[in-house]
Design a protein that fits this description.
Blueprint: H1 7-32, H2 37-79, H3 93-129, E1 133-137, E2 143-146, H4 148-154, H5 172-184, E3 188-193, E4 200-207, E5 216-222, H6 224-259, H7 266-298, E6 306-308, H8 310-327, E7 331-335, E8 343-345, H9 347-363, E9 370-378, E10 381-388, H10 420-430, E11 434-440, E12 444-452
Parallel strand pairs: 7-9
Antiparallel strand pairs: 1-2, 1-5, 3-4, 4-5, 6-8, 9-10, 10-12, 11-12
């Protein structure tokens, strides 16, 4: 409360002083004029009455003024955020009603702010758990609100100042969508690719104000995975069609040749029948690989883990390919330590993995080349490596080499479905392992896979009676 005297209080002090002067003047004047005692007493009584009235009025004004100052101070404190502040006073009348109205207003305001805070917390929880991105862009193009999903889409920290201009201010397509919404004053829709992360989103911009040029609410639904699935399906159909077209065309051409008289030419019919068998086998292999990969990716394949003697598998499969490689003029070596521990996998699956890797190495290793199959134990994993000094893989193809149907362009002259490495990756990952490749074009490649060592008796030994 301010110690300074108010202007109204000062006025009443002056009035009080005037009353005292009046009282003194009446008494002095009475004595000087020779008035009788009754008149003097009457004058003094009148002056005293005036002085008493002034004192009462002054005290009342002071009390009212103090209550008003308290109300003013209370308003300042509530304005500063102290919603729990209340005024305690014994004032009555209009001043008391003012204080009572103030306290009721403060209580109502506190309740209203509590309700708003609860609604804000609910809205914040809903915003943060939404899978769709939500942002609010003000009239200047700055982001006022940004939920977690939107922060992920833009590749920014959700904890940053939401008023800081973010990627939305630099994304051309999104900026155009927001601008169109401001001009039209109605919702705008577009499927755009965000600059950050190259994510495909279904964007809806909705004006938050009736007048054009105001704030805009933007919701972003991530379509990236859906578009990737659609692209994958199109590529799958295209790749299968490509792989089947060549053998089918060859079979049809040879059948037509035989039909046009080739059956009577012994030098032709035997060769054509043999080639028809080869093309049929090629299509059968493609279908079998497709069924195998589909089974692995859908989780329908039998992948029950066992303790596999990986050393035995590598030696047996490797020695077979040593003979094949020798016939192609390629040197092949197998190096496996005697104490190599068992791994958690399936024996048939591991044989399939080793064969696919060795097949791949034979395809891309020229005559007089070299292939090395080796294995080693490291902590709780066994690493198997297949190395060659063949054609190698271009650096741009390395990230895609384990994708189904992916082939380095120049390798299309080689036989194969393009599914072998994809099958290897799915089998290895099904048993908690990892597969990788290192390669330099013209220098060769090294494929490596790691699988967990079988350290528990809970996993049965492969081939043991149940």
């Amino acid at each position: 409360m301010s110690p300074r005297l108010s202007s109204r209080g000062l006025l009443w002090c002056i009035v009080f002083a005037c009353g005292l002067l009046l009282l003194a003047w009446v008494g002095v004047a009475g004595f000087q004029s020779g008035a009788g005692p009754a008149n003097v007493a009457l004058g003094i009584a009148g002056g005293a009455a005036v002085a008493a009235s002034v004192i009462v009025i002054w005290l009342s004004v002071q009390r009212s003024s103090r209550s008003i100052r308290e109300v003013t101070e209370g308003i300042r404190r509530i304005e500063a955020g102290d919603l729990d502040h209340r005024i305690r006073t014994n004032a009555t009348g209009e001043t008391g009603d003012l204080v009572l109205a103030f306290n009721r207003m403060a209580t109502s305001l506190t309740s209203m702010m509590g309700d708003l805070s609860g609604e804000r917390d609910k809205l914040s929880a809903v915003m943060e758990t939404m899978s769709d991105g939500v942002i609010v862009v003000d009239s200047s193009g700055d982001v006022e609100l940004l939920n977690g999903a939107a922060a992920t889409l833009f590749g920014v920290d959700p904890g940053v100042d939401p008023e800081t201009p973010l990627s939305v201010g630099h994304d051309h397509e999104l900026r155009q969508l927001v601008a169109a919404c401001r001009v039209a004053g109605e919702p705008q829709y577009a499927e755009i690719i965000l600059t950050a992360g190259r994510r495909t989103v279904d964007a809806v911009a909705t004006p938050l104000e009736e007048e054009p040029g105001g704030a805009v609410l933007v919701t972003l639904h991530d379509l990236t995975e859906l578009r990737q699935v659609e692209t994958s399906r199109r590529e799958f159909v295209s790749n299968v069609s490509h792989e089947l077209r060549t053998p089918l065309s060859s079979i049809k051409a040879m059948a037509e040749t035989l039909e046009d008289g080739g059956l009577d030419d012994s030098s032709i019919n035997a060769d054509f029948v043999k080639r028809i068998h080869i093309e049929a086998d090629r299509m059968t292999m493609l279908v079998n690989d497709l069924l195998e990969l589909t089974s692995l990716q859908s989780g329908q394949a039998d992948m029950k883990p066992e303790q596999v003697d990986i050393a035995s598998v590598i030696r047996e499969e490797g020695n077979r390919y040593v003979q094949v490689a020798r016939g192609l003029g390629i040197e092949a070596k197998v190096a496996v330590p005697e104490d190599l521990p068992r791994i958690v996998a399936q024996e048939d699956r591991m044989r399939q993995v080793v064969r696919n890797l060795l097949d791949n190495a034979l395809k891309f290793t020229p005559e007089n080349g070299r292939i090395d199959l080796s294995a080693s134990a490291n902590d709780d994993v066994v690493e198997v490596r297949v190395s060659d000094n063949g054609l190698g893989i271009p650096s741009e193809s390395l990230p895609h080499i384990f994708e189904r149907f992916y082939k380095v362009e120049r390798s299309r002259r080689n036989e194969g479905s393009g599914l072998g490495l994809a099958i290897v990756k799915n089998i290895v990952q099904a048993y908690g392992g990892e597969v990788s490749v290192e390669s330099r074009e013209g220098e060769g490649s090294t494929f490596s896979l790691t699988l967990m060592v079988a350290e528990t008796a809970d996993v049965p030994v492969a081939g043991a009676p149940v």
